[in-house]
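User: My advisor asked me to double-check a structure prediction for Large ribosomal subunit protein bL20 before group meeting. I don't want to rely on an old file, so could you generate it fresh from this sequence?
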Amino acid sequence: MPRAVNGTVSRNRRKKVLKLAKGFRSVRSTAYRKAREAVEKSLTYAYRDRRTRKRDFRRLWIARINAAARAEGLTYSQFMHGLKKANIDLDRKVLSDMAIHNEKSFKALLETARSNLN
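Assistant: Sure, here is a fresh prediction for Large ribosomal subunit protein bL20 from the sequence you gave:
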């Protein structure tokens, strides 16, 4: 009886890694060992950066809100504090979008926040 050496399972595992390494440069897309190392690292980066992206976008939204609020004479923290006091629960993504695309309603929010600060 011939010796079983896991042929199809191993081949499928290697094919899966090489498929993930498609588009990598040089030996990292053709040699299994280098491809596996590159794929493991890339998956680690992908996992990490899915979380980092959330942080980056939040920073961007805050910067946009701050710039729009300062143009009207309020700081970001004063603006957010005034909104909280007025029981207006809009997230930063929506506020940032309003600051860019809908200035009238953003100015109305600024006035609401300003009036609730005093």
